[in-house]
């Protein structure tokens, strides 16, 4: 029988952890966006957010099905990430509709970029799934339009939302560091092994540079100071 990456127990544990954290992240994204739809100022906005929430749930199902195909219980795979992800969302609960939009675009965007970076170290099938899940589903255009329009109407919103965006990034980076520290398998995936290259300090520095540049571009698109 042909060997695969999943024959390595350490790799399998890392891939399952990655799929588990992503699955729970998409499940909570569905829940949050559906909840934010209640704050939508217009019926059209409510419908747009409902569509985005449906997309997030579709992503969750894809990740869940991948775990099942690997012979893994999706609920068990997600369980280790419930507490840290719930804590992140508790600390970054938006106070209004616009903060919710910025969180979905800026906060989730940074987290998605980080997981795309990790996907560089997994097998081709898992990597393709991660990249598909995090492809733009139309959320960016919708959020940018609504936030920029709101700032044009009331320029004072810019300062408040910029501060909110910076806070989200700090919380998101702390969350990512906590998860990596708590899950040895994910840390090992980034570190590599004898036959599988990982990230050295210089590569880690370049990765964070890419994450920072992508965040700055998102804030600029919203009309906010990074």
Automatic annotation (TrEMBL):
Q: Which residues form the Ferritin-like domain?
A: 10-192
Matching InterPro entries: Ferritin-like (IPR012347), Ferritin-like_SF (IPR009078), Ferritin_actino (IPR059125)
Membrane-spanning segments:
none
Gene3D superfamilies referenced in this protein's UniProt entry, alphabetically: 1.20.1260.10
**Pfam family name, one:** MiaE_2
Protein name, please?
Answer: Hydroxylase
Origin organism of this chain?
Kribbella capetownensis
């Amino acid at each position: 029988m042909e060997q695969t990456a999943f024959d390595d127990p350490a790799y399998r544990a890392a891939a399952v952890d990655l799929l588990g954290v992503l699955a729970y992240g998409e499940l909570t994204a569905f829940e949050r966006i559906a909840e934010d739809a209640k704050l939508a100022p217009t019926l059209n906005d409510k419908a747009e957010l409902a569509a985005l929430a449906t997309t997030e749930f579709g992503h969750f199902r894809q990740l869940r099905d991948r775990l099942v195909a690997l012979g893994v219980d999706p609920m068990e795979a997600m369980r280790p990430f419930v507490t840290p992800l719930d804590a992140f969302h508790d600390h970054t609960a938006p106070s209004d509709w616009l903060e919710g939009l910025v969180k979905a675009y800026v906060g989730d965007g940074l987290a998605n970029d980080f997981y795309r970076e990790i996907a560089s170290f997994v097998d081709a099938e898992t990597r393709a799934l991660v990249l598909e899940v995090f492809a733009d589903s139309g959320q960016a255009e919708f959020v940018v339009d609504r936030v920029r329009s709101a700032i044009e109407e009331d320029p004072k919103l810019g300062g408040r939302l910029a501060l909110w965006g910076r806070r989200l990034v700090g919380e998101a980076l702390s969350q990512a560091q906590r998860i990596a520290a708590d899950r040895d398998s994910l840390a090992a995936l980034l570190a590599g092994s004898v036959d599988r290259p990982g990230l050295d300090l210089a590569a880690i520095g370049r990765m964070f540079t890419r994450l920072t540049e992508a965040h700055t571009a998102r804030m600029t698109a919203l009309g906010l100071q990074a």
